[in-house]
Design goal:
This protein has 113 residues and is an all-alpha fold. The protein has five helices and no strands.
Amino acid sequence: MHELGKTAPEPTGAVQKHIAKKSKVIQKRRQKMNLVIRNIKLFLKKRGLKQKTLAERAGYTAQKFSRMMTEHSPIMWEDILSIANALDVAPYELLKLTVEEQKTENVQKSKRK
């Protein structure tokens, strides 16, 4: 146990690698969730729907849906299926990148090679 006021030692070696790997995984998940949220908002706008209406159609309370849309509650695969069904779109539509994002991702992948 550490004395009051003293900081814990810095992680080293394998622990640092594990922390870095976990951070990357968390960052990728957050990016995917942001993508899904953005696409849901785009479909809401295209369809002229209110978030509350979509929540009800997908089987969620307005509060639960709002928590998902503000990243306070994770969006699971089952949620994507329910929301896509309520929007009358294929689930992959909620996971699609824009053309510009696809170009950026392709450039980044080619730089890694």
